[in-house]
Amino acid sequence: MDIKVESGDITKSAAKAIIVNLFQGVTSPGGATGAVDKALDGGIAALIAEGEIKGKRGEVALVHSLGKLPTPRVLVAGLGKQDDFTIDVIRDVVGTALRRARATGAKTVATILHGAGIAGLDPEECAQAIAEGALMGGYRFRKYKNGGSVDGEEAGSDIESLTIVESDKGKAAAIKKGIERGQIMAQAANFTRDMANEPANELPPSALAARAQELAKDAGLEIEVWDEKKLTAAGMGALMGVGIGSVAPPRFIIMKYKGDPSSKKVLGLLGKGITFDSGGISIKPAAGMEAMKGDMSGAAAVLSTTWAIGKLKPKINLTCIVPTAENMPSGSATRPGDVVRAMNGKTIEVINTDAEGRLILADAICYANQEKLSPIIDVATLTGAMQIALGPGATGFFATTDEVANGLTEAGAKSGEQMWRMPLIGAYAEGLRSNVADIKNTGLRNGGAISAAEFLHFFVGDTEWAHIDMAGTDESDKEKGVWVKGSTGIPTRTLINFVLGWAAKK
Ligand code: BES
Ligand code: MN
Ligand code: ZN
To answer: Is the CB of residue 455 less than 8 Å from the CB of residue 432?
Structure first.
């Protein structure tokens, strides 16, 4: 979808659909919506009086213009209550309106700059939100649909262009900048979705590494991919132990962005790349197991983030690390009771082969420490306990410093992806004592997300660190605003905003 800005009057637009807006409770629309209403001889105001159009958040009313405007149809997007209005509303409303426009068959769409006139928000931020909303809300994963699917959805109905029409010529440059940034943010989130939605038979560790190579090439980043021989030689026994039951061998991906050659400091972004989590010998129940193709969402998010940083070029050094493996049961798989050795020499007793994410991250953390990365931020669909604790509305994270914690919270708020800090509780590490090894991979039953974090903490040591457990938010079962069914792309935009914020501060 091509997104552009045009100086002019939305009532003159010949796009196949135009999007205007309405706050809840407004009975006679003003601004651009008012001008459109006037051209329609008060048609919108009449539908408000009828009670058909309420302006509720998420409501999109379709009004046919029947020759009274150059466009055949007007979509009136509800913004909800004026007091609750934020940049998130713009993203969501545009996402919903775009899908509605697509359903009409319109190929070209024009919209006003929501938020800038009525709410006085910054035009650049509004334009960015519109671009993000359109590209994320309009996302579909149709790679394996031939047409003639049981859902009846036909191919070829994508929207080709979205034009932001703004009468104030002075705002055009800011709108253009906002569109460009929004396109990169949304594209990164959609790359994450593409990787997470991809079935595991099509995306083994080697294929995830190939995707990383494509992203690195496109953004001009350095990349290295270690195969099973090299990572065995490096002593990554925890990662190897997880992947050893699969015919698709593990990989270790290292991607580098060097935006500040004058500094030795390098931020580390680590992502869990389990391309399929069957649980291994500690096999998962059948119901819902298909969702475990998305157990590499953390990896996808850090790779896409690094791509976006390569495009946005802030003054910072960033190394992205992805340990990737497939967790399968087989005659060669790791058994409960087996002991594996991580890269730093520490031994781990594997109590439950389904607690595999922390194992592969242990080796990645050892490598990050060896490279002196700081802070380290790891991103993982790590525990069902986190999903139960917070549900789909917020992503939980742990942090060793307030500075990193506040940075993540703020970046999440800016992205419309709520981040919620959880406590590290050192005492829970006692539950990780093993009779035979330095540590075991499962701990106390209660507070499972915290035990998992403390397991990682054991390998992190004193390095400044945050751990994001996105098990409850990586997937959506609903279509709502910018979210569509399947991978959400969370926390890609949060990570990009975090890195940009960190670069600006340091
Ligand atoms: N990938 C899962 C966690 C998960 C669960 C992600 C649900 C998304 C949705 C992880 O590898 C896992 O299996 N964790 C176990 C750990 C347990 C065995 C200590 C869990 O949470 O049940
Ligand atoms: Mn597991
Ligand atoms: Zn897992």
So the answer is: yes
pTM of the model: 0.98
Ligand 1 neighbour 352 (Cβ under 6 A):
yes
Distance 383 CA to ligand 1 centre (A): 4
Give the Cα separation of 229 and 255 in Å (integer): 19
Name beta bridge partners: 252.
226, 323
Radius of gyration of the chain (CA): 24
CA angle 443, 448, 449 (to 5 degrees): 125
Both structure tokens of 161: 């262009």
Which is nearest to 362 in space by CA: 470, 443, 473, 452?
A: 452
Residue 384 Cβ inside 6 Å of ligand 1? The answer reads: yes
Residue 278 CA: distances (Å) to CA of 123, 170, 380, 445: 47, 56, 16, 21
Give the pLDDT confidence score for residue 155 in this predicted structure. 60
Dump pLDDT digits (tens) for 60-77.
Answer: 999 999 999 999 999 999
Q: At what angle do helices 43-50 and 31-39 cross, to 10 degrees?
A: 100
Please, what sign has the CA dihedral across residues 158, 58, 129, 304?
negative
Cite the active site residues: 284, 358
> Between β-strands 267-271 and 376-380, what pairing exists: parallel, antiparallel or unpaired?
parallel
DSSP 483: B
Atom 7 of ligand 1: nearest residue by CA position = 384
Q: List beta partners, residue 109.
A: 17, 162
What is the residue whose two structure tokens read 């079962």?
477
Answer whether 355 contacts ligand 1 (Cβ < 6 A). yes
Q: Cα–Cα distance between 398 and 375 in angstroms, integer? A: 13
- Going from the Cα of 431 to the center of ligand 2, the distance in angstroms, rounded, reads 19
Q: Which of 382, 388, 474 to mutate to test the pocket of ligand 1 (most atoms within 8 A of CB)?
A: 382
Of 272, 361, 383, 490, the one to substitute when testing ligand 1's pocket (max ligand atoms within 8 A of C-beta) is 383
Distance CA 332, CA 241 (A): 10
Taking alpha carbons only, the member of 44, 28, 42, 34 closest to residue 9 is: 34
277 lines ligand 1 (CB under 6 A): yes
Torsional class of 469: left (φ above 0), alpha (ψ -120 to 50), beta (otherwise): beta
Residue 387 near ligand 1, beta carbon < 6 Å: yes
CB 293 within 8 A of CB 276: yes
pLDDT digits (tens, 9 = 90+) for 261-311: 999 999 999 999 999 999 999 999 999 999 999 999 999 999 999 999 999
Q: Output the six-digit token pair for 159.
A: 């929207």
451 and 443 in contact (C-beta within 8 Å)?
yes
